[in-house]
Design a protein that fits this description.
By secondary structure, the chain is mainly beta. 3% of the residues lie in helices and 39% in strands. The protein starts with a strand and ends in a 10-residue tail after the last strand.
């Protein structure tokens, strides 16, 4: 005799009413692409992990950031232009746009996190914002020093998942192999307002393993992304609780 509880899932919908770019694709970013263990940012600067994403962070010392350079970003072997990202490769069926900046691929075993910062200024307020991005393999975004979104992120080097409220470090990994073909769009600052002024969008892109031979990063912030649930938390539900399967034994 079994007790069966049947329910339906919640779904959410988003509608882009007028997609205006607040931070367009192809914007210029400062970036940090460590090549060796000697360049681990938190070793060079013991305060790096706690501060790199904050608006007033010093990009010149002790870690030397590159840029500003246009996105998208990809890693390639020295002397090569083959970025190995489907969405960035013109003759690939998944092609979307070419990379704006090619970064040197570190030696196998040292292919870990890269960091990006983009400063932008707004002259009006925005309330319906979203990030559209491709990040191979995982990513964490910050806006004005506040974490706003994680995608496929993250776990420690021994494959222990990292809680959403816990910080992620240079040697940590993406949860799984990332999507190098499709962009993802996610709402940000739901119920909040981005006020006029100067802002800093920061991102850390994580690999699924330190031997990964590719990396891709591309992002924009867009306005006009209306996020409305199809099922509210207060919606009424139909349910069944019984001692027998409602399907007469054919429940899949």
């Amino acid at each position: 005799m079994r007790t069966i509880l049947c329910c339906v899932a919640c779904f959410f919908a988003a509608k882009v009413v007028s997609a205006a770019d607040v931070v367009p694709f192809g914007s210029s970013w400062h970036y940090l692409n460590p090549q060796t263990a000697a360049e681990i940012p938190g070793v060079v600067d013991v305060n790096f992990d706690a501060n790199w994403f904050k608006p007033n962070f010093n990009l010149s010392a002790p870690n030397q950031w590159s840029g500003p350079s246009p996105g998208p970003f990809a890693r390639v072997d020295e002397g090569s232009t083959d970025n190995r990202i489907s969405a960035f490769t013109p003759d690939n069926s998944a092609f979307v746009r070419e990379p704006g900046t090619l970064m040197l691929l570190p030696a196998s075993g040292d292919r870990l996190t890269t960091y990006y910062r983009h400063e932008f200024t707004t002259t009006s307020s925005f309330t319906d914002l979203a990030i559209e991005y491709l990040a191979d393999d995982g990513v964490e975004f910050f806006l004005d020093g506040i974490p706003i979104l994680r995608g496929n992120c993250c776990q420690t080097s021994d494959r222990t998942p990292i809680a959403a409220e816990d910080p992620v470090g240079f040697s940590d990994l993406a949860l799984r192999t990332g999507d190098e073909r499709d962009y993802t769009t996610q709402p940000i600052l739901i119920g909040q307002v981005l006020a006029p002024g100067t802002h800093v969008l920061a991102a850390a892109v994580y690999q699924d393993r330190p031997t990964s031979n590719d990396l891709g990063f591309s992002a924009r912030i867009l306005d006009g992304y209306i996020y409305r649930p199809l099922v509210e938390s207060t919606s009424e539900w139909s349910y069944y609780i019984g001692f027998d399967e409602p399907s007469g034994g054919n429940l899949d």
